[in-house]
Automatic annotation (TrEMBL):
This is Alpha/beta hydrolase. The chain crosses the membrane at residues 6-25. The keyword Ribonucleoprotein does not apply. The keyword Transmembrane helix applies. Keywords: Hydrolase, Membrane, Transmembrane, Transmembrane helix. Residues 65-302 form the AB hydrolase-1 domain. One of its GO terms (molecular function) is hydrolase activity.
């Protein structure tokens, strides 16, 4: 009992020290806007949220490109792709619910069906009848689930290190582990070392040497946007891979699958699985890249995407 008492005391003292040293209050939307939402950012009211949106390129594009980011990311992850595409194509990207400057959903619903419904609501708001959906990780899951549930709204798919099948990670970012662990995720609502965010990004890159201070700042700032830490825990609880996986083989849209050969979160074998299941698909693996190949090597990966949509 004495040992147990001392152990509890040590845990309590450690927790107090962590809270004192790494306390991180939420940052308000207004506080974050000047740095992370300059022009051409705008905010549109969709499903009761002020959605952070960038809509660039020619408005007469009959088949706009919609880029969907993954967990704990934001529309900024597609900056490199957008720079190459927007001169000739309409490129739409936005922060999906629970992340970025959009923040939490008012109904706290983060099921895959809810995300697919959100994508269609955004297309409706922007008067887009049909478009090319490209998504990374959770964003890829949202993209192909939208194609399954609302096939008439999707002309082509690009899936980048995509979730959706059950999988076993080779390595999971520490931030994801904490957000997915009861008690710890409650602590994370108030305590968030910047080093944890940086470590999580390092885990996702094939070449961590190219990670910049500004990149870590962006992920850190948008993680502590008011409400996002609570929403992240709910997203992990509600959006599990598996639902609709039996429908993947029925996807009729031409599909490009891009994967980083060094992805330790969703192993490249999953890319092979998607390729085998989707009838009209092609798979391109970048051996040296990690879980975010579009962010890590935007020019190399977008060129493959441009070839695909042009065909």
């Amino acid at each position: 009992m004495k040992v147990l008492g001392w152990l509890l005391l040590v845990i309590l003292a450690t927790s107090i020290i962590l809270i004192a040293v790494y306390w991180q209050a939420d940052k308000s939307l207004e506080e974050l806007k000047p740095k992370w939402a300059p022009a051409p950012s705008q905010f549109v009211n969709v499903q009761g949220m002020q959605v952070h949106l960038r809509d660039e390129g020619p408005r007469d594009d009959p088949n706009p490109i919609v880029l969907i980011h993954g967990t704990s990311s934001s529309l900024h992850t597609w900056d490199g792709w957008t720079d190459e595409l927007k001169s000739t194509r309409r490129v739409v990207r936005f922060d999906i619910p629970a992340f970025g400057l959009t923040g939490p959903s008012p109904d706290n619903n983060y099921t895959i069906e809810s995300y697919a419904s959100f994508i269609v609501a955004m297309l409706d708001h922007l008067n887009i009848e049909q478009g090319v959906l490209a998504g990374n990780s959770l964003g890829g899951y949202v993209a192909w689930a939208t194609a399954v549930i609302y096939p008439e709204r999707v002309s082509q798919l690009a899936l980048v290190d995509t979730s959706g099948y059950p999988f076993t990670p080779k390595s999971t970012p520490i931030g994801f582990i904490v957000a997915n662990t009861p008690v710890l995720n409650k602590l994370m609502e108030k305590v968030l070392p910047r080093s944890m965010v940086e470590s999580s990004i390092i885990n996702l890159y094939g070449d961590p040497s190219i990670i910049t201070h500004e990149l870590v700042d962006r992920y850190f700032d948008l993680t502590v946007r008011a409400g996002n830490r609570q929403a992240l825990a709910q997203r992990f609880r509600q959006t599990k891979p598996g639902p609709y996986a039996d429908k993947i083989s029925s996807i009729p849209q031409p599909t490009l699958i891009i994967w980083g050969g060094q992805d330790r979160l969703i192993p490249p074998e999953l890319g092979d699985h998607f390729h085998r299941e989707i009838p009209d698909s092609e798979l391109v693996i970048f051996d040296e890249l990690g879980h975010l190949p579009h962010e890590e090597a935007p020019l190399e990966t977008v060129n493959v995407f441009i070839d695909f949509i042009n065909r």
